[in-house]
Amino acid sequence: METLLNYLNQRIGITTFLIGVVLTITAILTKLFPPKKINYLYGYRTAASMKNQQTWDFAQKYSTKIMVSLGLGLIAFSFLDAVMDISEVTSTGLGIGLMILGFIYMMITTEKAIKKNFPNE
Fold this sequence. Notes:
By secondary structure, this protein is mostly helical. It has one domain. It has helices at about 1-10, 15-30, 55-85, 90-115. Helix 2 (about 15-30) packs antiparallel against helix 3 (about 55-85), helix 2 (about 15-30) runs parallel beside helix 4 (about 90-115) and helix 3 packs antiparallel against helix 4 (about 90-115). The longest helix has about 30 residues, at about 55-85. The radius of gyration is 17 Å and the shape is elongated. The N and C termini lie far apart (about 50 Å). Keywords: Membrane, Transmembrane, Transmembrane helix. It comes from Flavobacterium silvisoli.
């Protein structure tokens, strides 16, 4: 098993790959089993999304779509790393940077979509 992990780490950006896999799985699970009621444990939780049940349901669906794209994008980037022969440190830094930018993008676009679809809330 250790040999496989070493091989993967040499061939792809394993950290970025694993982050992408975790995000994709989390998004798929959230899509399949969305939080039914507003809660403080899991789901897309902001002041706007937690105003009422309609905004909550909308935010869960909308943000999940973006999270799947973000996860798949990070997985793709990890394989691009193998082609470009980027160092492990650079690859990890870029992967984490892309993840942070992706989450910022998800929050901004989801909040805008909530305001657009629920202007009186």
